[in-house]
């Protein structure tokens, strides 16, 4: 229990076995690793006597978390880059609208709870970013508030898991509730998607350039009039992989990679990412559970579900988007990497990554704007 590698892989093994259990048309799939991680994350600190050793384990888990994000986001960006031009050309401004609309829905629903509850507004500000599973949103919230950062972080930590669960459950249950035939939709896109059958080599030099450029972009501070925006590793690597992947080649450097290898990276990154979330959060979420944290968790879940439903209704019935593309757009609007993993798992189509990549940047900008508005409207 003191070995972080053992904790990681026992969580992955248990979670994947849990994910195979099927109830009618529903199963957790790769998302089972999140729940296994939560359990072992609660369990392992009980066996650790030294605070220093506990901190060392947590630091290693943080490294797993960050490395898995790099693997997952770069691979989905490079896969999505093959279709994103065609998706954007076909659907135009719909993804921009969805990105802002979904984050606005989360903002307005969280803001309403400041008027109808006696909860700490700083906690609710953190819950907003937690319900949207947005680390850049948390950074923006912390930047706009000089005092009370601990309360914001607490709200984010408590709200994050319900936000993740809301996206995962929605992605699996919406097709069941609304009787969406995913296989039929996949057939309609079968001949529209760019041919990915070419067996490209995997160039680690090009792949490293994608990562390095993404980290550099992610660490740039973009000073806007209302706030400064920092994309972080996730946003930066997503943009670099989409950009370089869509270019294909620069001189002798090829950014066209073997899709099967990218899928291996994607799946490996996803299960490590979900497991490490659970391992990092399990003890705090389960052991510190009380009435106030319960309220915040319920609020986070409600706000996330509301945002998802708004995105689904507008996307499906007004923009007429098929579920495969819309599932990616919703998870992009929620800035939810675990949600994208659930969408990939439930649809078995990489086209969802194009919807995710097209919506994510605008949702990220929306999180910065609405965090600032939240602090202004609540006089924080």
Automatic annotation (TrEMBL):
The chain crosses the membrane at residues 6-23, 30-48, 60-80, 92-116, 154-180, 200-222, 234-252, 264-282, 294-315, 321-344, 351-370. Coiled coil: none annotated. It comes from the Bacteria. GO terms for cellular component: plasma membrane. InterPro entries: AAE_transporter, YidE_YbjL. Residues 8-174, 207-374 form the YidE/YbjL duplication domain. This is Integral membrane protein.
